C-alpha cells in the first residue's frame, strides 16, 4: 500500500486527488495536512512514501502589498516542506507548479520542457524560484517530481474559467473565434499524479488533456449543461484577433497557448 501525504488541506486539487484515490482503498492511504500555520513542523512525515505539495496562493490580487505573501507561501513554505520531506527519508516529493512559470499568456509556438522560463507575475516567479530550490534537493534516494499543469478545470474549480462562465450567463452573447489552449480536467490531473506516484517519477512533467481546449466549445458545452441560452456571433472575431496580445483578458480567453504533444 502506498502512503501519501497531501500538504495543503482542503485545496481544490488535493481534495479531488484524495477523493479520486478512494476507488483504490486497498492500494493507497491518503492524508491531508493543514500547513496554514507552523503545526506541520511537528508532524511525522516518515510514515509516508510520497508527499504531494499542493498548498499555495494564486487567485488573490497581484499588488505590491501581496508580493511577500506570494513568496512566503509559494516558495518558502514549499521549500521548507520539501526539506522536511527529505530529512524524513520520504522517497518522493511532488511539487505542484504551473504553466505560469513560462511568463506567456499566448504563443504561436509549442511549449515543451526546453522552453525558457521568464515568469512575469508574483505567482509565476514564486513558483519558478521554488522549483529551482527544490530541484537542488534531488538525489538517488529522494525523487523530486515537478508538475506544471496548464489551466485546471472541473466542477467547482476556481479561476478564470469560472469568471468567464459568469460573464456569459450575464450577457448571453459570445464570439465564435476558435483557438487552441492546453488545459486539463482535475480528473485527468489526478490520473497523472497517481501515475507519477506509482512510478516514483522524478523530473519535470507537463500533463494536459489529449485535445486542446477551444474557448467557444467549452463555453457552449457548459451553457448547454446549464440550459443557458447564448447567441454566438462572428461579428466580433476580427476585433478580437486584433486585440490578442494587446489586451490581457482577451488574450487569455482567445489566444493560443499549447504544450506540444
How would you sum up this structure, described in words?
- This protein is α/β, with parallel strands linked by helices and 261 residues long.
- It has 2 domains: 2-150 and 184-205, NAD(P)-binding Rossmann-like Domain (Rossmann fold); 160-178 and 213-254, no CATH class.
- 36% of the residues lie in helices and 16% in strands.
- The chain has 8 helices and 10 strands.
- Helix 1 packs across helix 5 (186-198) and helix 2 packs parallel to helix 3.
- It is globular.
- The model has no long low-confidence stretch (mean pLDDT 95).
- Pfam families: Epimerase.
- Residues 4-172 form the NAD-dependent epimerase/dehydratase domain.
Quaternary structure state of the chains depicted: single chain
H/E order of the elements? Answer: EHEEHEHEEHEEHEHEHH
Query: What gyration radius follows from the Cα positions, in whole Å?
Result: 19 Å
In CATH, the architecture of the largest domain is 3-Layer(aba) Sandwich
Which whole number gives the mean pLDDT? Answer: 95
List keywords for this structure.
261 residues, alpha/beta, Rossmann fold, 2 domains, 8 helices, 36% helix, globular
Summarize the structure.
The chain has 261 residues and is of the alpha/beta class. It has helices spanning 12-20, 67-87, 122-135, 160-171, 186-198, 215-225, 237-243, 248-254, and strands at 2-7, 28-33, 50-53, 92-96, 143-147, 151-153, 173-175, 183-185, 203-205, 231-233. Helices cover 36% and strands 16% of the residues.
Record the SSE blueprint.
Blueprint: E1 2-7, H1 12-20, E2 28-33, E3 50-53, H2 67-87, E4 92-96, H3 122-135, E5 143-147, E6 151-153, H4 160-171, E7 173-175, E8 183-185, H5 186-198, E9 203-205, H6 215-225, E10 231-233, H7 237-243, H8 248-254
Parallel strand pairs: 1-2, 1-3, 3-4, 4-5, 5-9, 6-8, 7-10
Helix pairs in contact: 1-5, 2-3
